Amino acid sequence: MLKTSTSTNPFFYFAYGPNMLSRRLREPNRAPSAVAVDIGFVQGRRFSFGKVSRDGSGKCDLEATGNLKDRAYGVLFQVNIGERPRLEEAEGLGIG
Fold first, then answer.
1. Which helix (H) or strand (E) holds 89?
2. Strands (E), 1-88
3. How many CA atoms lie within 13 A of 49 on its CB side?
4. Going by C-beta distance under 8 Å and a sequence separation of 6 or more, which residues neighbour residue 2?
5. Is the pLDDT confidence value at 4 over 80?
6. Within 13 Å of residue 50, how many CA atoms lie on the same side as its CB?
7. What SS3 state is found at 24?
8. Backbone dihedral angles phi then psi of residue 45, each to the nearest 5 degrees
9. If you average pLDDT over each of 2-6, 8-12, 22-26, which comes out highest?
10. Vertex 90, ends 96 and 23: CA angle to 5°?
11. Domains identified in the chain and CATH numbers
12. Higher pLDDT, 34 or 7
């Protein structure tokens, strides 16, 4: 059976910065099905505010450092796959 974008199959989303706030991530234009399942970190990265938004404000990013002692912590969420396009659009995937 072919799965469509309206499927409720989950994917995992690693949230950092403001998206660690469940209420923000579950907004209707993002991922209303999001459920926090664990906390975690990525090695070799650090938080950076070097990205500039369309409104001129700084945006959080995980900058690669190459140093495995650097860690950036976040929250792992489970999200219905049908919400992925909205979440990617809200997060500006492919823009910067």
1. helix 84-90
2. 10-15, 35-43, 45-52, 58-64, 71-80
3. 5
4. none
5. no
6. 7
7. helix
8. -140, 160
9. 22-26
10. 130
11. 10-90 (3.10.490.10)
12. 34
